[in-house]
Prior knowledge:
- By secondary structure, this protein is an alpha+beta fold.
- The protein folds into two domains: 2-99, no CATH class; 108-250, MucB/RseB, C-terminal domain (Phosphorylase Kinase, domain 1).
- 41% of the residues lie in helices and 27% in strands.
- It is built from eight helices and ten strands.
- The strands form two sheets. It has a seven-stranded antiparallel sheet. Strands 1-2-3 form a three-stranded antiparallel sheet.
- Helix 3 runs antiparallel to helix 5 and helix 4 crosses helix 5.
Amino acid sequence: MAELAAFADGTLPVERRAAVEARLAGSAELRAFVERQRRALTATRALAAEPVPATLAASVAAAVPRRKPRRAGGRGLAWRLGLAGALVAAVAAVVVLSLNRGPAAPSVAAAAGLARQAPSGAAPASLGTSGTTLAASVQGVAFPDFAPAYGWRAVGVRQARVGGRAATAVYYGKEGRRIAYVIVAGPGLARPPSAASTTIGGVQYQTLRLNGAPAVTWRRDGHTCVLTGAASPAELLTLASWSSAAAGQSA
Length: 251
């Protein structure tokens, strides 16, 4: 992240540019991050040239320790320069946080990162006579049972945190391959830019590569879901759309 920020503002050392550009070429998420950083920098520079609102100046001045200057041109000048710097920093922080949706905003790529980790718990059991859901869910959004219809059997589960939010991954295995279905708690994450979109049954699915593997992301009941692993994009899309349809049928 630090190198990406330096790349965005032009301070990245020349010897590191090729490596960072290579990473950017393979990740729409990282390219979007750099673009947001550049917009934040542009907005910050523009704001630095604008008059500071009196209310903001008063708030920052109240937080700066007051010292009685010994002479007009000495510490009084230093205090005023410090206040000006504090104001610019405060405005810059507001701009950067607003453009980046918070300092710890989770991403779809981060959620997909759970797929590369090992399960930490046993596979959840199948629920009900319909055989469409497992005994695992995130805020009421249940994980699907792919085994009866597609042969993908649940082999484990892992709970973690993504950008400060709870997330659960259920792992499925078939013929020596493994995929992971991740659900992130809370409202839906920002949709990945430049991903191929397909609408099935009124649900928008986005197909892309995350962490070097094919992936599909979409939303169920407002929660972000990610399905990724050793399967083709078409197979992942079929499984994702089936899970949404099965959930709708059982609701």
